Automatic annotation (TrEMBL), chains A, B:
It is found in: Nucleus. This is Auxin response factor. Residues 133-235 form the TF-B3 domain. Auxin response factors (ARFs) are transcriptional factors that bind specifically to the DNA sequence 5'-TGTCTC-3' found in the auxin-responsive promoter elements (AuxREs). Signal peptide: none annotated. The chain holds residues 1 to 401 of 926 of the full protein. Homodimers and heterodimers. Belongs to the ARF family.
Length: 401, 401
DNA sequence: GTGTCGGCCGTCTGCCGACAA
DNA sequence: TTGTCGGCAGACGGCCGACAC
């Protein structure tokens, strides 16, 4: 993935706004392309970084698992509490694939203790824009034979109104993509029965973005009365090719060494998060982590729900049962909360869903009130006792609000 | 750069031939695309690896210099003598850009001493194929309006002979690219004056490879009477975009950590060499290194020649004068031979050529016989004495043949 | 010897409503 | 409501020699 323009996050406090040489990606469009489940932590907030999850993303991007022969980084714990200094949204110049660049600074030992005492920094879920639609392209949409058939409700909700006095009603639409490129389309309402179509300009867009049937386009009509245009490619299997800049082994080592060095010196480091390549978010708000790990009771046999994205870019819940709680990789990452929950899924199509999830990804179903709680329910981990409960912090030190 | 097919080197001894799931890239075509100055060390031979040069390649690929805040790797010397276990040629699936993957194993201390005693492993220069031609594409060649105008001598030398009894003489050519894809062209000899043209099939090739005026194509007619077809894109400025898999800092750290770990444990590691992205080769035959460093007398003021590639894929010599000998980066890479020679170039177009080169890249002009020499001339480095002369080896231990 | 052009023909692009799912 | 098709007109692709540098 090669990056073009970039922007700072436009959400959150303590935001670092950078202007000048770099163009700003439209945050709304970025989130729409990333999908409804992707949320970025706020700039200035505290987050938990999982090198293990980062390693999984690199493995997915290089098609190669981390090797067992790697050097050890004893100074690198399985989760690292960090200050999030900067978030920059990017989009691949070739494919429009979105990713986020984050600058993290591991907290010092003293600050880690304080981390549990500060007012909760609530992460807001990525709010999808209201005036938008997303359509999966048909064979006719991508064929050179014709244009793009706009679903009626979508056109009426998202596009500016046509003058229905004209025959046929038509207008020119100008939409901008993630790179702020302008695309012009002729929008016309014709045919028998009547339908909305994009004709002139559509095929140029399809061939420029190399869209094929099965890919999706999304149009947003924002508050500034601008039309935004994004794409989301179908997940085609086996499209990932190894990069030739660095061997995958060196990449894995680099990710670990960079995090370990930053942790040892409390200095900043930079990571890329690829929402549509990574199996899970590996930088999550500290508050979300604490809530899930220390204030939620889970146990084997417990039922839970979890959100997934649908084909139509909306969300639905799948249900399952917790079948176990244990380290995903006891040898390399002991005492890690990353994907520590083994689960079984209710539906038979469960083959597509992970057999292991992290605590903060699921919604346990319980008859008790879950939170806020005056008596926080503590997770009993199945690990041998005597381990430092949380990087040397005693359980009693932990509190929220 | 994303890799597709690959092959083991077809030159050199101790060659590991891998067959089955991986297709073999044609070595002849790979070298033709890489250019006349690129040579790969033999599998099984001993080489010198320069992490500093590797770092330069990564910097060129990520558009970012190595950061000074990196952790130190005291176990990583500026040059590492390695056994070369494997060489695999690759080509980018999107752009056809060539690169080579090498598996290196640092020698143990004992083996390092032996390294200077073994019979010389002479590296052979990359021999360009004899029956080939390379043409830079004109506006007419890449226009949709017509086909490809084949230079007359090239067509007569490289293409199979036409039957000139026909009117006009024509034939179908089938050429294979680096990925072993087949391309068919109609080759015809017509017009007034008569000329060789590729018509039907040419435009498909141009658009598939996304060739533009200024790019080059090369045709090879090999010993097996096969027609091979490669491309070499014009060096367009600012085409390098940062990857989003890993931050450039992490990549730099990864390269250093991987090499340091391999050096400390005498285990294998893997690197990618991108001939057309990297400023210089950073894995060179040990013999070439020893010859240049220990058996060549250079001094400030000395005249030298150095090979460069021309537009037409051939080589020419440029002349210059040595203006200094010193460490390129005394802080991070003290006592490194990497680009230790400061030079001035004779011609005014010297702005394009590096101000620093390595000893083994240049041909010092001297009135003495240079080598072989019964009395090896030793380089007097301007560094403070007392440093280990060569990883703890005494000068007298060194010998060639 | 070869890069670019005008001429010319054929194919494909692309806009239209019909029709059916 | 919308995916695909046949019909049709015009644009562009693509093969040719002319011509000039």
């Amino acid at each position: 993935m090669r990056l073009s323009s970039s922007s700072s996050s436009t959400t959150g406090f303590n935001q670092v706004t950078r202007e000048g040489d770099k163009k700003c990606l439209n945050s709304e469009l970025w989130h729409a392309c990333a999908g409804p489940l992707v949320s970025l932590p706020h700039v200035g907030s505290r987050v938990v970084y999982f090198p293990q999850g980062h390693s999984e993303q690199v493995a997915a991007s290089t098609n190669k698992e981390a090797d067992a022969h790697f050097p050890n980084y004893p100074s690198l714990p399985p989760q690292l509490i960090c200050q999030l200094h900067n978030v920059t949204m990017h989009a691949d110049v070739e494919t429009d694939e979105v990713c986020a660049q984050m600058t993290l600074q591991p907290l010092s030992q003293e600050d880690q203790k304080d981390a549990y005492l500060v007012p909760a920094e609530l992460g807001t879920a990525s709010k999808q824009p209201s005036n938008y639609f997303c359509k999966t392209l048909t064979a006719s949409d991508t064929s050179t034979h014709g244009g793009f058939s706009v679903p009626r409700r979508a056109a009426e909700k998202v596009f500016p109104p046509l003058d229905y006095a004209q025959t046929p009603p038509a207008q020119e639409l100008i939409a901008r993509d993630l790179h702020d490129n302008e695309w012009k389309f002729r929008h016309i309402f014709r045919g028998q029965p009547k339908r909305h179509l994009l004709t002139t300009g559509w095929s140029v867009f399809v061939s420029a973005k190399r869209l094929v049937a099965g890919d999706s386009v999304l149009f947003i009509w924002n508050e500034k009365n601008q039309l935004l245009l994004g794409i989301r490619r179908a997940t085609r299997p086996q499209t990932v090719m190894p990069s030739s800049v660095l061997s995958s082994d060196s990449m894995h080592i680099g990710l670990l060494a960079a995090a370990a060095h930053a942790a040892a010196t409390n200095s900043r480091f930079t990571i890329f998060y690829n929402p549509r390549a990574s199996p899970s978010e590996f930088v999550i708000p500290l508050v979300k982590y604490i809530k899930a790990v220390y204030h939620t009771r889970v146990s084997v046999g417990m039922r839970f729900r979890m959100l997934f994205e649908t084909e139509e870019s909306s969300v639905r819940r799948y249900m399952g049962t917790i079948t176990g709680i244990s380290d995903l990789d006891p040898a390399r990452w002991p005492n890690s909360y990353w994907r520590s929950v083994k689960v079984g899924w209710d539906e038979s199509t469960a083959g597509e869903r992970q057999p292991r999830v992290s605590l903060w990804e699921i919604e346990p179903l319980t008859t008790f009130p879950m939170y806020p709680s005056a008596f926080p329910l503590r997770l009993k981990r199945p690990w041998p006792s005597g381990l430092p409960s949380f990087h040397g912090l005693r359980d009693d030190d932990l509190s929220i609000n």
